[in-house]
Amino acid sequence: MLAWRAVSLGVAAARSLGVGCALLALAGAPGPAGAQEGGTAAATSSGDPYVQRGVPAEATAENGVVARERAFAAGRRAAWARLAAELGLASAPAISDAQLESMVSSIVIEQERVTPTRYAGRITVRFNPGRARGVLGARAPAGGDPGMGGGGPVPQAPSGPATNWVEAVATYRSLEEWLELQRRLRAAGAVASLQVQAIAVDRARIRLGLRSPGPVAAGELAGGGVVLAPLVGGAGDGWRVGIAGGG
Predict the structure, then answer these.
(1) Which of 79, 91, 178, 229 has its CA 20 to 30 A from that of 134?
(2) Of 63, 41, 73, which is closest to residue 114 (Cα–Cα)?
(3) Rounded to the nearest 5°, which phi and psi values hold at 111?
(4) Per-residue pLDDT tens for 62-95?
C-alpha cells in the first residue's frame, strides 16, 4: 500500500522533498533515465510558456540542503529567462530572487542527485501567469497550454472567492496526467483555489476551494473534461477527482 507523503504547494514543497524523482521516489521506483549527475535529458515544451520543463538545477555548497536551495534558485532564473525568450522578449526583466520566487506556483523535480556538497537535477517550473504578466508587461499572453486531447488553450478562470471547500483524492496514471489535471482545475471557473496536501505515485490528496456547491461545480468541471464525484464508500464528505477517461 502506497504511503502518503505530505507536501505543500509551491516552492516550499520543492524544498521539502527528499532525494529521488518527486513522484516516483515515493514508491521506491528508480528515477527516469538520465538521472545521474550531469545527465543530458533534453528540455521539453508543454505548449504553455508559463510551464518550463527540463530546466537544469545544479549547485555546490557546504552541504546538500544548501546546495539544493541554491540549485532551485538557479533553476528559477533559468526558467524565467526561457519564459522571456519564448515570449519574444530581448531579455528577462531584472527582478530580485524574492520577486521571482513569488511568481512561481510550483516546482516539480523531474530527476535529481544529491551528494554531501552538490545537487544536480532537472525541474519543471510553473509560473503564476497573472503575476508573471504583471512584470513582463502587455506582450505576455494569458497562460494555458493545449489540453491532452489536443484542444485549444483554456481561458483564464474568472476571479472570485471560494464559497465551498471539498477534500478530494486526485488520481492519475503519470506525471503528465497529474500536471494536466492541475492545469484544468486551475483554469476552471468553478475552482477558486487548489491546495496539495499529500502526494503519491498515482494519487494525491487535495483541497479545492469552489465558487459553487460541489454538485454544481462537478457539472461545470465536466465540461472541461474533469470528473469530480463523491467517493463511493468514503467517510465524511470525501470526493474523487481526475481527468475524464483517466486514472
Answers:
(1) 178
(2) 63
(3) -160, 155
(4) 988 888 889 999 999 999 999 888 888 878 888 8
173: how many CB neighbours lie within 10 A of its CB? 13
Q: Is the domain 164-243 a CATH 3.30.70 member?
A: yes
- One-letter amino acid at 185 equals L
Q: Give the three cell numbers for residue 68.
A: 539544493
- The contacts of residue 174 (CB under 8 Å, 6+ apart) are none
CA pair distance 208, 204, nearest whole angstrom:
12
- How far apart (Å, rounded) are the C-alpha atoms in residues 5 and 181? 19
C-alpha 197/C-alpha 6 separation (Å) is: 6
Rounded mean pLDDT, 214-231: 87
pLDDT tens digits for range 172-208: 988 888 888 988 888 888 888 888 888 888 889 998 9
Q: What is d(CA 216, CA 220) in angstroms, rounded to the nearest whole number? A: 7
CA separation, residue 117 to residues 46, 65, 114, 206 (Å): 32, 8, 8, 34
pLDDT digits (tens, 9 = 90+) for 99-157: 888 888 888 888 889 899 999 999 999 998 888 888 877 455 555 443 333 333 434 44
Identify the three-state secondary structure at position 167. Answer: strand
Domain boundaries for CATH 3.30.70 within the chain: 164-243
Number of alpha helices (DSSP H) and beta strands (DSSP E) in the chain = 6, 9
